Amino acid sequence: MEPDLHTLAYFSRNAIDGPDGLKQAEIEKILATARANNSKLNVTGALLVSGGCFAQVLEGPLEAVETLFEQIECDPRHRNVTILHFKPAATRNFGDWAMAYAGDRAEARAETGSGVDLEGLFAHPGLIEGEQAGRDIVRVMSDLIHRTERAQI
Ligand SMILES: Cc1cc2nc3c(=O)[nH]c(=O)nc-3n(C[C@H](O)[C@H](O)[C@H](O)COP(=O)(O)O)c2cc1C
Fold first, then answer.
1. CA spacing 20 to 30 A to 63: which of 13, 40, 44, 90?
2. Could you give the angle at the alpha carbon of 131 between the alpha carbons of 125 and 132, nearest 5°?
3. Domain boundaries, the chain
4. Residues 42-87 pLDDT 10s
5. Cα of 88 to ligand 1 centre, how many Å?
């Protein structure tokens, strides 16, 4: 039991420019930084990169999550950062990952049967609102990460 545990999920538009190889390299950099920093902060989570969008879940002590998010929010590599969910949590969904990674849109599409349309979210993030939707996003990302072999510590 972690009394201070909070989960934050957001959605943003990828603003990384350039050829695919460079974009991928930039994402690798983000993951390397995230994994190094988040471990120190006792923050775990997942990053979903899909075409022109990011979705990320951060979970950890309230202050660490807030401070980290404020920093991430200002990163010029994305824009239109929209919080989908920010709540106290009983348990971690990504306890094994400083920052898990899922990078394929097809897998997000395959998840639509489970109640949340991630494709729809990417197209119309404004439509995702309310507590249930926020929780669903975290759950869908969790399912996705736990099923993708590319998820790693
Ligand atoms: C989509 C996205 C997700 C990010 N996620 C994290 C993260 O989980 N942890 C982190 O430390 N930095 C993350 N960053 C990078 C931060 O914005 C920032 O560059 C970094 O924290 C700076 O760390 P440094 O001072 O150690 O270089 C992310 C950036 C982007 C664009």
1. 13
2. 85
3. 5-147
4. 999 999 887 788 889 999 999 999 999 999 999 999 999 988 889 9
5. 22
Mean confidence (pLDDT) of the chain: 82
Q: Is the CB of 78 under 6 A from ligand 1?
A: yes
User: Ligand 1: does its nearest atom lie under 6 Å from the Cβ of 104?
Assistant: no
Ligand 1 proximity of 34 Cβ (cutoff 6 Å)? yes
Check residue 52 and give its pLDDT: 82
- Distant-in-sequence, close-in-space partners of 24: CB < 8 Å, separation ≥ 6: none
How far apart are the CA of 54 and the centre of ligand 1, in A? 13
State in words which class domain 5-147 has.
alpha beta
